[in-house]
Amino acid sequence: MGVFASTDDPGSTGHEQVVFCQDKQSGLKAIIGIYSTALGPALGGTRFYPYASEEEALADVLDLSRGMAYKNALAGLDLGGGKAVIWGDPEQIKSEALLRAYGRFVESLAGRYYTACDVGTYVADMDVIARETSYVTGRSVEHGGAGDSSVLTAWGVFQGMRAAAEHVWGTPTLAGKRVGVAGLGKVGKYLTGHLLEDGAEVVATDVNPKALEWVRATHPQVTLVDDTAALAASDIDVYAPCALGGALNDDTVPVLRAKVVAGAANNQLAHAGIEKVLADRGILYAPDYVVNAGGVIQVADEIEGFNFERAKLRATRIFDTTREILRLADDEGVPPAVAADRLAERRMAEVGRLRSIHLR
Ligand SMILES: NC(=O)c1ccc[n+]([C@@H]2O[C@H](COP(=O)([O-])OP(=O)(O)OC[C@H]3O[C@@H](n4cnc5c(N)ncnc54)[C@H](O)[C@@H]3O)[C@@H](O)[C@H]2O)c1
């Protein structure tokens, strides 16, 4: 296993293991970060991205793998948290040899880490990686995979939003509410369908003209606005960021008129402290990593042999988890994002501890 540069002491970040992988001939440089295996093997996708430096790649994998531990814990999975990054431009260097070399490094961890898709990697890549390792999920339907994870991601976001609605307005429905969907991509489209079916009014925006065409043709009752800034400032009850990260920032939060934020986008809080600004403004933020866990629930289910109904049932439980987090936040007088972290840490400690009971 190649080490391509020295790094900080991984113990200082709380990670169990950080593995540097290098295969010079194929051009592979990867870092696998395992934050925790307290609840089971670490699960998290592989991000293939042209990082500016090794430090940037390392910082990303440490951050993302930690996030996965919290997400998997709150999704009720018997899985820990991990993530991997491959450093380079996938358009330039992705090849069968590189992916298979990576697969051999994943295999060498003997099941401590399961990989899946992330930015820059796709189901077809997982099929290639799987030729070298069995510790890979998120595979193509032809290979027993579950296919598009956005179906259950949208379902889970809808469940989390229902729980937030109940917390604020007393009933677990979006009927009669105006919901602003920022981003009509794979998740935003399905979410819009669930919202309309529930009786909500949907206001939406996207930068892609094709997405706008789709909504005009499929759901002509949806009101379209120019951009996310206009959407955030409009008269909506719920804001659902479903595009990029950092949606809740110093520009949007002060003008937000919604009482609830619940959406699919990862890393919605642009910086530490913004959750407090939301809380001070009386806006209930349903933590992104809690409500968008439907996708990871789907790929985790695939490890057992995919069953859509079982996975959907698990994603439906995002309603209960969100409800529990919002109650805990009230009881402990902290923002929901802090309550979610506490609940995840509690499960990792309480359930993870059981492994100290010796069986044989
Ligand atoms: N797909 C999943 O299963 C899944 C799971 C968990 C989290 N997420 C997160 O949810 C978000 C959406 O995922 P997706 O799979 O639907 O992605 P996607 O790429 O299919 O959709 C994103 C949409 O946002 C639009 N968009 C980009 N920038 C915008 C802007 N500035 N203003 C308005 N619209 C903009 C894009 O045109 C696109 O239609 C991402 O942040 C993703 O990381 C997705």
TrEMBL record:
<dbReference type="InterPro" id="IPR036291">
    <property type="entry name" value="NAD(P)-bd_dom_sf"/>
</dbReference>
<dbReference type="InterPro" id="IPR006095">
    <property type="entry name" value="Glu/Leu/Phe/Val/Trp_DH"/>
</dbReference>
<keyword id="KW-0520">NAD</keyword>
<protein>
    <submittedName>
        <fullName>Glu/Leu/Phe/Val dehydrogenase</fullName>
        <ecNumber>1.4.1.-</ecNumber>
    </submittedName>
</protein>
<dbReference type="InterPro" id="IPR046346">
    <property type="entry name" value="Aminoacid_DH-like_N_sf"/>
</dbReference>
<dbReference type="GO" id="GO:0016491">
    <property type="term" value="F:oxidoreductase activity"/>
</dbReference>
<dbReference type="InterPro" id="IPR033524">
    <property type="entry name" value="Glu/Leu/Phe/Val_DH_AS"/>
</dbReference>
<dbReference type="InterPro" id="IPR016211">
    <property type="entry name" value="Glu/Phe/Leu/Val/Trp_DH_bac/arc"/>
</dbReference>
<dbReference type="Pfam" id="PF02812">
    <property type="entry name" value="ELFV_dehydrog_N"/>
</dbReference>
<dbReference type="InterPro" id="IPR006097">
    <property type="entry name" value="Glu/Leu/Phe/Val/Trp_DH_dimer"/>
</dbReference>
<dbReference type="Pfam" id="PF00208">
    <property type="entry name" value="ELFV_dehydrog"/>
</dbReference>
<dbReference type="InterPro" id="IPR006096">
    <property type="entry name" value="Glu/Leu/Phe/Val/Trp_DH_C"/>
</dbReference>
<keyword id="KW-0560">Oxidoreductase</keyword>
<comment type="similarity">
    <text>Belongs to the Glu/Leu/Phe/Val dehydrogenases family.</text>
</comment>
<feature type="domain" description="Glutamate/phenylalanine/leucine/valine/L-tryptophan dehydrogenase C-terminal">
    <location>
        <begin position="147"/>
        <end position="356"/>
    </location>
</feature>
